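Subject: two folds for Thursday's group meeting

Dear M.,

Sorry for the delay on this. The cluster queue was jammed most of the week, so I only got both jobs back this morning. I'm pasting them in the order they finished. Each block is the input sequence followed by the predicted structure tokens. Could you check whether the formatting survives your parser before we put anything on slides? The first protein is the one we discussed after the seminar.
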Amino acid sequence: MVAEGAAGGFVVTSGRYTAEATGFAKGRNIQLVDGSLLKHWIAHHSTSEFRSDIRDKETAASTSSAPLCPVCNESMKIRLARRGLNAGEKFWGCARFPNCRGVRKII
């Protein structure tokens, strides 16, 4: 994880973890989520609540100082380049991606 720049992580299964897996995760910033915990999470978070939360975040992002796409004139979102010369750098990408590939540099 450190080699990839991750500070921690989750490992999720619908079943159970072995004693070896549990031992490996101890002392590391790894949270093991077994089937019973996963079932609990799902039962206590309805899809409508989740989608509402996503919409609220998207609305907040689009009403902030986000620029408009130079291609389609829609709002843009901050994205992270994952490949190429700019890997690891943030940029403005069209909210309609992949239908629109408009980008702007963050100044």
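Second protein, same layout:
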Amino acid sequence: MSRRSTRRRNRINYSQFGDDDAKDDSADSDVSLDGDISDSSVATDGGSDASDRDDSVASIVSIPAKKPQEGITKIVRIDKSTSLDMLFTQQFGFDSALLADRVHQREFWSPVLVNLPDPGTWPVLERPQTDLVLLPQTTFTARSTKEILHGRAIHLIDTQLVSIEAGTAYNSTINTGYHVTDMSWTHIDTRHILAVSLLSDTERYAAVPSSAFERKLALGVIQLWSYEDTSMSLTLIAVVTHNWGSAWNIKWRDSTLQCLCVFQDGNARVLDFDSLVSSNGITYQHLDTPSVTIESSMSLISCACWNGPNEVVMGFDNGYVGLYSLHSLMFEMVVPCHSSYIIGINAAYPEYPRRVGVMSTDGQFSVLDLNSLAELKWKRYQSFGSPVEWSRHMHGFLWVEDSLNCRLGSLRNVHWGGLVSWHNGTLTAMSASPEHPLVLTGSIDGTIKTSNVVRKFLNKHDTGKQFRQVQLWQLKYDCDRDAYKFIGGFKPEEVRKRVGVTMNSVKGSTTTSPMPVNTSEVLAMGNKQGVTACCWGHNGIYAAGMANGLIRICRLPDTRASNLSE
């Protein structure tokens, strides 16, 4: 019989990798790689044929002994946290006082779906008190009524067909007469003030293509409305016109009646409405000189927000981010952030001063820390849509993903982006309240939805899977009667996973399928029923503005708008 070398299967010694639990069940015996390999280590079955003999010179190959290795650190990725302690520390850190406050917030808000408790019982999130920088007064020129209120009347189907003239309100519905671009609430005692930015020349903008920053500017309008808690009545306070085109990013300054706006001419301005709100009756004014004008000679301002009462953070059309101080009336810093036009910005104030979330037209959302420019920490998500909000209850930013979904990203958990809300149409408006954890979202199909982020993210995984959102109402258009109607009574619905993506049996792999087409109805874009702005007010009041000029104001809970049972 010839001598033949037979192959023996080796069993891997996993101890050298620092994992004592690993094993290979397919092996039958151990083979040591330490020492020399010689002829004695080769199994034979006899034989002396020339073809089977190995006539080469025998040699001994020496393999050096295994070098000592350092211990290997195990990296464990936790996909689903089941421990509440882990959830809270991942979200808020290890500050015992902060954790105790957030545990109290969770116990109070977790059962809430949409039926808010009495406002006097809410746990309050403290806001630091800061001395305000005194600003010059805004100057106005009186105008007549006919020059301002020439918007068209809108027919609304309630219990009967109602015609609402421009500049008037019917129950909880306002007809501004113009396209609503943005809104913001503030309150003084029991009086709530709603500032509404409008664009009067919408027909020209719809007919002729125009740029975001156009030098030939249309007449812009800002309306101020008052809502009384006791009487629940809506009253028009002031109508203000200006020559700076469309306005957006309306934000009230803390504890004042001063308002920050970004205008189509590429500048941001601070307007003082104290003299208009304190006057009796309706006043019609033209804005001449603002309190503060913020402008840059190098680029145009595309969005802005308050970073405390004395600082303004803004984004530019060249991708830069700037910090403006009202103390010096100068830019403290201007830093590069994106390579394209910035369309959304918001500050994490007061929890993380000078930390901002930035959205740009390249589809990326990032977080920028202006206090540590030498150590910029970025979080990038593929996102579309301009709304960016800061959630004080969750210490995270809310942004629009894939045009249809609202997601929340924590500042402490780098790879975390939880789904908060979804729509069938493009998500165009979003608002997070500093008083409660309910998030308001609106879309182009005229729907308004709300969801509770504390209920979603500060519970164990089994509870989080039962997370629901509520469609409060939807605006429908009746072509036959040329009228609009608010439809309510929707049941809570499950927040679905990302549309078009399903998990495979192989761990971590996904399969992308074509997105389903909604064939239930055809949305007529010409009726302007889409939501263009929404905002939370004080004590559960919210407002939603439409492209047709309607604004609906409601207070939660509202049994007319939604079905409160799960």
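Two things I noticed about the second structure. The two ends are 82 Å apart (CA to CA). The mean pLDDT is 78.

Cheers,
T.
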